[in-house]
Amino acid sequence: KKLKEAELGFTYDDFLLVPNASYTEAKDVDTKAKVSRNFELNIPIISSAMDTVTESDMAIALAQEGGLGVIHRNMTLEQQVKEVKKVKMSGDLTIKDVVTITPNSSISTVKTIMEEEEVSGLPVIKDEKLVGIISKRDIKPFLNNNSDKKVEDIMTSDVVTIEEPITPSEALELAYENKVERLPVIRDGKLAGIVTIRDILNHKKYPNAARDKNGNFLVAAAAGPFDLERAMALDEAGADIIAVDCAHAHNMNVVKFAKTMKENLDADLIMGNIATSEAAEDLIAQGIDGLKVGIGPGSMCTTRIIAGVGVPQLSAISSVADVASDYGVPVIADGGLRYSGDIAKALGAGADLVMLGNLLAGTYESPGDVVVMNGRKYKQYRGMGSMGAMTGGFGGGADRYFQEIKGPMKHSKLVPEGVEGAVPYKGTVNEVVFQLVGGLKASMGYCGAKDIKSMQEVAKFVRITSSGIKESHPHDLLITNESPNYPTL
Ligand code: RVP
């Protein structure tokens, strides 16, 4: 009876999206996606909290593109906090940690500070007030003649400043108008930082970036399901979202603790992973801000083989989304995505966005070095439940699978649910994301969906057979030029 009543579970390869009558051009599609109750991204892509996928470089690169990185937790709390801060500071228009000088300092002191701090201009401060600015150019004529001139003798006293809050365009205009390279930023009459033309132009280079209300990049960080201390420290460090990272978030102890986590955080709280509508109901009841779906679809995951447990991913997304959409809680489809078409299918099945491991591993910005095997470049990619991740690094993979590392024979006491391997080197995140978003936009054009919400509504699926899948991939030819969006491993 049990078997008779069992539902069929489907995944990406079991369906195709059906083309619809469409007035939507791919280029006009809006890819904004809600990632949690309070945060929206400009593209529906976030990166996995894995030690071969997301540290600050990946999170910065993805935020620049409009997505979000989830900093993994297979490192000490101090290191993870540092990574979060690096992301937050890198998108900052204003340098807040400004080195200043006093009016009666000597020119040689200015020179030394400029060399040590690698800056070419210093604000001059007297009694906590900005009284001038001095640049490398100002001190140059006095460097070789043992001059006893002081800062106040040669500084520019008529300083062009800008008041907070600042916008990049406003700052640029002011700097150009007054022919200055840097503008001191003033808050409540005091120096709050400095903004340079170089930083403003850099800021403008990423118009699609995912930013918080202060203009800094959005960043998420992973914490264990019961690690309140880590979650709170990451929140304090500036993480916008805490992503509880757990192989089975429908464990009722995890569910119960979610409420405590939520009550103690200012950041939004994303919980995962789950694969059923019941799990969605139970977690949403705890007041969480986002749900992550995926039990076993990951490219390096062996949970479905080792435990025999899981739900094919498209069915899992659809079950969770049916519940979550009633409550307005975003759904993240995590794992198992191999092509841009899979992203489109995930959204069509009800997800708001996707989490990528494999597709982003092997980029320039993922942690780890490039290795060359048989003349091809690769980077390491491993499951957080693999033996290597559970015992290496900070051992932060083990409690994801409710396991503890104890004693000298630690290897023999663990049951891995992931494998370790390598993926081809793929170039930069920018190049990869360009192809993925391009493919998604094409799909939305075919389906007639102007934005993600309408993709969730209008997408229609057709079930296909193994012959359908065979027909879908290139066939009956030898591929001579590898396509950037269709890799052959
Ligand atoms: P993929 O993109 O298919 O490589 O899957 C990535 C996802 O797999 C991660 O975001 C995570 O949910 C899951 N994962 C990570 N480690 C393991 C494991 O060791 N089983 N699984």
Brief overview:
By secondary structure, the chain is of the alpha/beta class.
Keywords:
489 residues; eight-stranded parallel barrel; three-stranded mixed beta sheet
Question: What does this 3D model show about the protein?
Answer:
The protein contains 18 helices and 20 strands. It has about 500 residues and is of the alpha/beta class. α7 (about 170-175) runs antiparallel to α8, α11 runs parallel beside α13 (about 315-325) and α14 (about 340-350) packs across α16. The model has no long low-confidence stretch (mean pLDDT about 95). It is elongated. The longest helix has 19 residues, at about 430-445. The strands form 6 sheets. The protein has an 8-stranded parallel beta barrel, surrounded by 7 helices. Strands 8-9-10 form a 3-stranded mixed beta sheet. Helix content is about 35%, strand content about 20%. Ribavirin monophosphate binds near residues 298, 356 and 417. Ribavirin monophosphate binds near residues 50, 298, 334 and 385.
- How many beta-strand elements? 20
Radius of gyration: 26 Å
Query: What is the makeup of the main sheet?
Result: 8 strands, parallel, barrel
Number of helices: 18
Q: What overall form do the CA principal axes indicate?
A: elongated
Lay out the secondary structure.
Elements (H helix, E strand, L loop, with lengths): L1 H4 L9 E3 L15 E4 L2 E3 L3 E3 L8 H10 L2 E4 L5 H14 L16 H11 L3 E6 L2 E7 H4 L11 H4 L7 E2 L4 H10 L4 E6 L2 E7 H8 L15 E4 L4 H10 L3 E5 L6 H12 L4 E7 L2 H8 L5 E4 L9 H4 L6 H15 L3 E4 L5 H9 L4 E4 L13 E4 L2 E7 L4 H5 L28 E5 L4 H19 L4 H7 L2 E3 L2 H7 L17
Parallel strand pairs: 4-5, 4-16, 5-11, 8-9, 11-12, 12-13, 13-14, 14-15, 15-16
Antiparallel strand pairs: 1-20, 2-3, 6-7, 9-10, 17-18, 18-19
The chain binds ribavirin monophosphate.
The site of ribavirin monophosphate has 23 residues, from β16.
